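Forwarding the complex inputs:
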Amino acid sequence: MVKRRTQPNNVSHPAEQAFRAFVRTWGLFRNTMEPYFASFGISGAQWGVLRLLMRSEQEGARSLRLTEIGERLLVRPPSVTGLIDRLERMGLVARKPSRVDRRATEICLTPQGRRLAKRVHRRHGHQIRSVMSTFTIAETRQLHDLMLRMAAHLEKLEQTRPGHEAQR
Amino acid sequence: MVKRRTQPNNVSHPAEQAFRAFVRTWGLFRNTMEPYFASFGISGAQWGVLRLLMRSEQEGARSLRLTEIGERLLVRPPSVTGLIDRLERMGLVARKPSRVDRRATEICLTPQGRRLAKRVHRRHGHQIRSVMSTFTIAETRQLHDLMLRMAAHLEKLEQTRPGHEAQR
DNA sequence: ACCATTTAGTTAGGAACCTAACCTTCTTGT
DNA sequence: ACAAGAAGGTTAGGTTCCTAACTAAATGGT
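Prediction (whole assembly, four chains):
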C-alpha cells in the first residue's frame, strides 16, 4: 500500500485551503446578501436582471433579449425564463416580441421596475462597502485582480472542457 | 437636484468592482464544479456531506447530526433534511436514531458511500489544483488570506444584524 | 414536580438553478 | 429554392436553497 500524492492528514495543499475558503466565504456572502435583497422584496438574481436592464437603458438600449440576460448573468435559458416570469408577474418587467426576429422576446423595465431598481441602486453602494469594509483599498484591488484572473482562467477551462460543443 | 455620493457613470468604486468580480467568478466556478461532480453522479452539496462524514470518520466520530452538518455547510435544517433524504435514497448514507437524545438523528456513511467518497477524494486534489492553477503560490496564499478575512467579517456582520435572535 | 422554553428534525411551499426535449423561426450550404 | 442545421425560448422534471409553521423531546426555572 503505497501513499502517493497524498497530503499528510489535515495538512492540505495551499490551493485546497484557498479553494475551501472561497467556497465557505461564498456561503457566508450569500447568507448576508439574500436577506438584504429580501428587504426590497426581491432576490439577488432578480436584482441582477433589474440592474442589467437599468444599465442598458443608460447606455441607450431600451431592452434586452432573454439570451443576452442569461449570458451576462451566467445562467441558462430555462432559468432566465423562470426569472423573467416572476419579475413580469410582479409587474417589474415586460416582455414584448421583437420586430426584427420573430423567435426573440425583448425584455424591458416597467416604470415600477425602474423605480425599484433606482431605489435599490441608491442603497447598494452602502451595502457593498459594508461587506467589503474589512479590506484596505490595496487589498480590495488585490481581490479584484485575483477574481478577474480566476474568472479568465475558468472561462478558458470551460472552452477546453470535453462535451462542450454547441451549448452556451 | 444635487448629486451626492454617486460615482460618475461606469466608473465605480474599487469595492464595487471587486464585489462584482467576486460574484461573477463564483458563477463561473459553479459552472465548472457542478459538471465535475455530476461526472461522479453527485452534486457539490452532496460532496460536501460525504466529505464531512469522511473527515469525521477519520477523526474517530462515526456519525454526525443533521444540525452539525447544516452548521458546517452553512445551510439550514430543512435543506439538510432534503440533502440527506436524497443521499439515503441513493444508498450513500444512513440515518439512525441517537441513543442519547431521542430527538436527534445520527448520519453515517454506508460502505457504498465510503467507497464513492474515497473515489472522489482521490481525484479532488487534481481538480482543485486545475481550477487554481492560474495562481502562483504567493497569490494562492493571498486569496486564502483575503477569503478568511472576508469570512470573518461576514460572520461578524451576521451577529450584529437586526432580527437575528435565536436562529442559526 | 411541572410548565415554559429551547432544541432537533420534518413538512409545506416557493425561488433559482440545472439538463433534456421540444417548437418556431432564422440562416446557410448546395 | 429548399432541406439541414443553428438559434431563441419554453416546458418538464429534478436538486438546492430558503422561511414559516409544526411535532416531539430535552432542559431549566420556580
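Chain B touches chain A through 54 residues (CB under 8 Å).
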